Automatic annotation (TrEMBL):
One of its GO terms (biological process) is methylation. It comes from marine sediment metagenome. InterPro entries: DNA_methylase_N6_adenine_CS, SAM-dependent_MTases_sf. GO terms for molecular function: methyltransferase activity; nucleic acid binding. This is Uncharacterized protein.
């Protein structure tokens, strides 16, 4: 497995990450061994405190129900929460089986296709960076 590592002072959050290998792991299921038991739809953190947020949610409502016994996933809620806790200049990394829409105040930097093995769904990795694009657009239209 390729691991690029991260600086020790980098604050990384995994909102669906009970079994993640690094960073702060938040998960709705206690049996996955997360650092914090919680829901990605309502993160228990103040605004703009993480350098990186890694989203690897269940890829469908059926998958969510099967794995976690939870109901429908609400993309807008968990993506808004991820963007809220992400620092300006920070990176939002999202894994999914589909190409996903954007996140508030985050610009797409790269989209990668990851194939893990034969006869398995490929995963799409979206890497977005939080910036002040909307603020700049507002300034341009105001003056």
């Amino acid at each position: 497995m390729l691991s690029l590592g991260a600086p020790r002072d980098m604050r990384i959050l995994h909102p669906f990450g009970g079994k993640a290998e690094y960073g702060l792991r938040l998960d709705i299921r206690a049996d996955t061994g997360p650092d914090i038991i919680g829901d990605a739809h309502a993160l228990p953190f103040r605004d703009e405190i993480f350098d990186v947020v890694v989203l690897d949610p269940p890829y469908s409502d059926d998958h969510s129900k099967e794995l976690y016994g939870t109901g429908q996933l609400h993309f807008k809620k968990y993506i808004n929460e991820a963007a809220r806790v992400l620092k300006l200049g920070g990176f939002l990394v999202m894994y999914h089986s589909l190409s996903m829409p954007g996140a508030p105040s985050c610009r797409l930097r790269i989209r990668l296709l990851v194939e893990t093995r034969v006869n398995h769904l490929a995963r799409i990795v979206h890497i977005r960076q939080k910036d002040n694009t909307k603020q700049l657009e507002l300034i341009k239209t105001t003056f």
